[in-house]
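Materials and Methods. Structural model of Bifunctional polymyxin resistance protein ArnA. The 313-residue sequence of Bifunctional polymyxin resistance protein ArnA from Lacunisphaera limnophila was retrieved and submitted for structure prediction as follows.
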Amino acid sequence: MKPIRVGFAGCHVLSWFCLRTVAELCRGSGDTLAGVFNLPPEVGQKHSAYVEFDALEREYGFPHHRVRDLAEPPTLQVLRELNLDVLFIIGWHKIVPQEVIDSARFCLGMHTSLLPADRGSSPVNWALIRGDRRGGITFFHLTTGVDSGDVLAQRGFRIHRRDTCREVHQRATTAAIRMLRAEWPLIRAGVPPRLPQNEALATYNPRRRAADGLINWQAPAEEIDRWVRALTSPYPGAFTHFRGRKLFIWEAKPAKGATAQAPGTIVRVGETIHVATGRGLLELKRLQFEGEPESPAHLFAAVHSPEPGSRLA
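The predicted structure was written out as tokens:
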């Protein structure tokens, strides 16, 4: 079989693992990884879970381009000159236009949901916020629509009760690697599967901003716990305010017991910090004032002396 020419664009932790897999597959089958694209660090660091490809560049020796936008005329010219059979765009920061898609015979991407459900922004975060117990990842043909292209392959997995966004992303990444390996022969042969999505089943998620992480203490403890697990590192984090300062909650869990205290009131301070919610108590385990190091609750308490009866808002 004739060797193929492959391109790759991405800037996310998922991108790093998929790029390494693609580089290994190219090496094993004698194909050419002709060009790799990532954001410049000064731009990429503004995005959650950004990762650089420098170590992979040293290991695999591919041409490495740092670009702000794949659709910029100089970058688009490079893509066209690469004469790609397949361009993977996995973990990029925006929808790409038709000119980029047309630069390769096939343009393929990944989305961390079982499409057509959860198209759009932050599917893993929204799944955890809702309390979903099943997640997945879809390998699909890119179009100019929002995650609407034909499906190449899908894999689902269980979301465990105490999973965080990091753990769900890790399961999705494992599934992505397995799909790349399984579908590589068909991709090389120029016949990657195409199954149209059922538009009647499509759902969409709104875009999330860092400011959307504010905790509503009127909500039940179970709901706030899901909120914290959905937004924890590598994302901007769930937060509240204490003594006029922004306070991030990186780890928490519902606690046994009840209280008549108003939601947001600190009830107990010890190894952890217990806070009243709209229903039940929430146990805070890892916290961080903005501008300070993250710390376990007992260290935070030693430094800042939060008192029972004081309020988070």
